[in-house]
Specification:
Blueprint: H1 12-19, H2 21-59, H3 62-65, E1 67-72, H4 80-86, H5 89-101, E2 115-120, E3 124-125, E4 140-144, H6 149-152, E5 153-158, E6 173-179, H7 180-186, E7 193-197, E8 203-214, H8 220-223, E9 232-236, E10 243-251, H9 257-260, E11 267-273, H10 285-297, H11 299-308, E12 313-315, H12 318-361, H13 363-371, H14 376-405, H15 412-436, H16 456-479, H17 489-492, H18 494-509, H19 511-522, H20 528-537, H21 544-579, E13 583-586, H22 596-603, E14 610-620, E15 635-640, H23 642-652, E16 676-681, H24 683-689, E17 694-698, E18 701-710, E19 722-726, E20 737-741, H25 747-756, E21 762-765, H26 766-771, H27 777-807, H28 809-821, H29 826-859, H30 866-870, H31 888-916, H32 918-923
Parallel strand pairs: 4-10, 6-8, 15-19, 16-18
Antiparallel strand pairs: 1-11, 1-12, 2-11, 3-4, 5-8, 7-8, 9-10, 13-20, 13-21, 14-15, 14-20, 16-19, 17-18
């Protein structure tokens, strides 16, 4: 008798995916987003660090970024022919090619902006009578045979300089060109000749044949030695009044270099190498620093001497640029790591919650399989395959999106991040199933949060977390986020640990107010309130995990928002320090008085709400100290109207003071030398003045001052030594500065009034000063990461609420169906679900507010945002520190969103359950 054919079984994975396609798609979307964030973070850090390096090197002035290899002229012991051959074009060009070839990696040259040649290191005075002499001093000229002139300039007048025949040390005439700026300043025209003295009795005649205009004046070719492009007035060293003379440069053809060897200008050979930063990355910084050090005094310099001469030396400021870059990166990296650790912790908790939701939904199914003899390995393997089919493609797609979105970064850190997400997701459900179903279960008792008793293991774990959190916060407060040994993950995880401990504490105390409220509600009429609180008390003890996710997410979002708020506040403070008001109108050097017509025109300008007229006098001598020492610089004397100036100081927060303490009483009644005027002084001046009145002799008048109050800053000046007095005490009064307040100030109108006055007036607006603090790529990258941390934290917090409510959704739906058969209305059903979810939503929202505020208050002393806020801009040195400040919006909005979303989900669920009907729902069976 033949055996019956075996019945084909449907594949497990395909069956499960077809059974719940919506859940599989939602799960895949969660994995995709989380994998994208995990992969995008390291790539974003690499990208903004690389862009920051290229920005710092690319925006540095060529004077600092160019590598200059130079050496003295060929030795005098050599024959003239050998000396001439050493500086000719072909010899210099061959050496230039070898110099570029021997640059140590990762240094690469920008060949288009690099140049070489011979120049006179000592400027030579020119005695031609047609040169301008502002103070009667002859101009001095530098002669250079820089290569590639025709490629970097446009000929405006005349012809390009050239050599006619072979130039030697005895050549009597050569040609040269000058730039338009040089020709205009020194009145040089084509055809003019300049006699250059030589070491012998003869002179070298330099004939100007062309006037050129630089194609790229800001490039390294012209700006590594700005004198080639732009002449300059230089002060002659003297003890008397400074006297200025012109200094400029003339450009000779490269083959004319031998003629310069005969001059008295100490000729030198040079090769200027402009670095090519387009291929550098942040990972190249250590090797780049080593290469620069090698060129300045190591094997790299020896290699250069093999091709350029044994006496050449290398000079560059690249190492200083790299030091500033490292300082910025070391200041930003720990702060960014705080955001990464926070969001990473929230993402892990949410993924674990997702695994818990899937396990709880299939608890009966898996228990049945286990009771019928299914092994843990077999069940776990099927769950792993089922999860991997969805998670692996989603993780790979997230990695691909991160690679496409963020370029110029390493691949392996992103792959590790996305892979870690996939591994965690795939392992969460099988491991949780293995722990729950180690033995076959017929019935599981209630695990109510209000009645649960923590085990000893849980108590030990909570105490361990408490010790870690306290240690991390203490370390962060003590040394700050900028640790010398690099980024400390324990310190970076301090906000997360504080949130975890707060969640554990809130879960411990949560049953107490719930029991009290339940006793009070039980005495009231109506069943909705009592049933709601009773249901809230029957929440599973596993509800701790959603609370952990919410608190950590809200804390991280609050920390990120506070970082951004601190950066903005620091830039606002620096702008206020720079201007002292909303707008500042001053004469030249704050010393030239403003005309009365200009003052009236400015005060009537649109948007001006108030003005403070200020008289500033610098360099006022202070009396000698007790030991007889004098202050050579003196102090700054400021005359103000006490009422308007006190109002300005209060509005800007720069040294506020009561106006009455500064008002001079009886001014002018006593002789000049006997008047005693109350003064607002800086700490350094207060130390010099002491308690007794001391006399001052100034252009504004002679009087005595007594320190009435001490402030560290004042709106009128940005300095640490000043004396502010009532201008009514001055015998010679004038206005040298106007400090304006108001909204919507019209900069064009203010500057038009300044131009119409015919004076040299400076108009400075606080809004324009604030705009100068532009973000470098590293700053903007760090700010984008913190903005993403806020958005991701809020998103994960809301997702945690949804997962928490979805876990018990079938049970609540069945409860509503049963109660509706007993007469419960739809409105009462909505109130029941809303009141049931409200206790934990309020616990999370209020707890998140308190924990976020407490975390920022605890960590603020250890976090300084000054490098993140003010690494660039003219006011970067005005603030000594930029503390972390609490941002109320970052605290309130995510917490409010948790409450609103919880109520919305409860209302939607009640509405949906009402549409389905009680009979339909009860037919589905009791899902407990």
């Amino acid at each position: 008798m033949s055996a019956r054919p075996a019945t084909a079984c449907a594949p497990w994975v395909r069956t499960r995916l077809r059974t719940a396609p919506g859940a599989a798609c939602a799960f895949a979307l969660l994995v995709l987003v989380t994998a994208f964030l995990a992969a995008a973070f390291p790539r974003s850090v690499d990208a903004y660090e690389t862009k920051g390096l290229r920005h710092d090197l690319g925006t540095a002035t060529p004077v600092h970024s160019v590598l200059e290899l130079k050496g003295p002229q060929p030795g005098l012991e050599l024959r003239p022919a050998a000396r001439e051959a050493a500086v000719r074009e072909d010899t210099m060009a061959a050496a230039h090619a070898q110099v570029l070839k021997r640059l140590p990696a990762p240094l690469r040259a920008d060949t288009a902006e690099s140049a070489y040649g011979v120049r006179t290191s000592t400027p030579i005075a020119a005695g031609e009578p047609w040169f301008p002499r502002p103070f009667g001093l002859d101009p001095t000229l530098t002669y250079a045979t820089q290569s590639g002139l025709s490629s970097h300039a446009t000929l405006r007048t005349g012809s390009w300089p050239a050599t006619h025949g072979t130039v030697s040390m005895t050549t009597g005439e050569v040609e040269a060109a000058v730039t338009e700026e040089t020709a205009k300043a020194l009145r040089i025209k084509t055809g003019a000749t300049i006699a250059v003295p030589t070491r012998g009795e003869d002179t070298l005649t330099v004939r100007i044949t062309g006037i050129v205009a630089p194609k790229n004046p800001a490039g390294s070719y012209w700006s590594s030695e700005p004198l080639l492009r732009t002449p300059s007035l230089v002060a002659k060293p003297t003890k008397d009044t400074p006297r200025y003379y012109w200094i400029a440069a003339l450009l000779l053809p490269p083959d004319a270099a031998p003629a310069l060897l005969a001059t008295a200008g100490q000729p030198e050979l040079y090769w200027r190498i402009a670095p090519d930063v387009s291929g550098l990355t942040a990972l190249d910084v250590p090797q780049l620093r080593t290469s620069v050090a090698s060129l300045e005094g190591g094997p790299g310099l020896l290699a250069m001497r093999d091709v350029a001469g044994a006496t050449v030396s290398m000079a560059t400021d690249l190492d200083e640029i790299l030091t500033g870059y490292d300082g910025m990166r070391s200041a930003i990296q720990p702060v960014v790591t705080v955001a990464a650790v926070g969001i990473g912790a929230v993402a892990v908790v949410v993924l674990l919650m997702t695994g818990g939701l899937l396990a709880s939904r299939r608890h009966a199914e898996l228990a049945l399989l286990r009771a019928r003899g299914g092994s843990l390995r077999g069940i776990g393997g099927r769950l792993l395959a089922e999860t991997a089919v969805t998670a692996v493609p989603a993780g790979a797609l997230g990695l691909l999106l991160a690679v496409l979105t963020v370029g110029e970064a390493r691949l392996w850190p992103a792959a590790v991040g996305a892979g870690a997400v996939v591994v965690l997701v795939c392992a969460a459900l099988p491991l949780r199933t293995a722990l729950q179903h180690r033995t076959p279960q017929t019935h599981v008792g209630r695990d109510d949060l209000a009645t649960a008793r923590p085990s000893r293991r849980r108590t030990v774990a909570e105490l361990t977390l408490l010790v870690l959190a306290v240690g991390a916060v203490f370390a962060l407060r003590r040394r700050g986020t900028d640790a010398e040994g690099g980024t400390d993950l324990l310190v970076s995880a301090a906000p997360v640990l504080v949130g975890l401990i707060a969640a554990v504490v809130l879960v411990r105390i949560y049953p107490l107010p719930l029991r009290l409220a339940l006793r009070s509600v039980s005495r009231l009429r109506g069943a909705v309130g009592f049933l709601s609180l009773a249901r809230a008390g029957r929440t599973s003890a596993a509800g701790t995990l959603p609370l952990l996710a919410l608190l950590v997410a809200l804390t991280t979002a609050a920390f990120g928002g506070s970082v951004l708020a601190g950066v903005a506040d620091a830039r606002d403070d620096a702008a206020v320090l720079a201007t002292g008001a909303d707008a500042r109108v001053t004469g030249e050097a704050d010393s030239v008085p403003l005309s009365a017509g200009l003052v009236r025109a400015v005060e009537k300008a649109e948007g001006v709400r108030g003005s403070a007229r200020v008289q500033v006098e610098f360099g006022v001598a202070l009396p000698a100290a007790g030991d007889g020492t004098q202050d050579a610089k003196g102090t700054t004397l400021i005359g103000v109207d006490p009422a308007t100036y006190a109002a300005l100081a209060r509005s800007t927060g720069l040294g506020p003071f009561p106006a009455d303490r500064l008002r001079a009483k009886g001014a002018g009644a006593a002789p000049d030398g006997d008047r005693v005027v109350p003064a607002l002084v800086s700490p350094s001046v207060a130390e010099r003045l002491g308690d007794r009145p001391l006399g001052l002799r100034a252009l504004a008048g002679n009087f005595k001052v007594r320190a009435a109050a001490t402030v560290t800053r004042t709106p009128a000046v940005d300095g640490s030594s000043f004396i502010v007095v009532d201008a009514a005490a001055f015998t010679h009064r004038q206005t040298t500065a106007l400090l304006l307040t108001g909204s919507g100030l019209d900069a064009k109108e203010l500057r038009a009034a300044a131009r119409h006055s015919g004076e040299k007036i400076s108009v400075q607006l606080r809004s324009e000063e604030r705009a100068t603090y532009v973000d470098t790529p590293m700053q903007s990258g760090a700010e984008r990461i913190y903005l993403a941390a806020i958005v991701a934290g809020a998103g994960y917090a809301l997702l945690a609420v949804l997962l928490s409510l979805l876990r018990t959704a079938p049970e609540r739906t069945t409860l509503l169906a049963r109660l509706r058969t007993m007469g419960l209305t739809s409105r009462q059903g909505g109130r029941l679900l809303g009141f049931e979810a409200l206790p934990q939503a309020l616990l999370a929202a209020v707890g998140g507010l308190l924990v976020g505020w407490a975390t920022i208050a605890l960590l603020a002393p250890g976090v300084d945002l000054v490098r993140l806020a003010l690494s660039s801009g003219p006011g970067s040195g005005r603030l000594a520190t930029a503390p972390l400040r609490t941002d109320p919006w970052s605290l309130a909005l995510p917490a409010l969103g948790v409450v609103v979303l919880t109520g919305a989900v409860a209302g939607v669920q009640a509405w949906w359950a009402g549409r389905r009907g009680s009979i339909t729902e009860l037919r589905a069976g009791d899902s407990r």
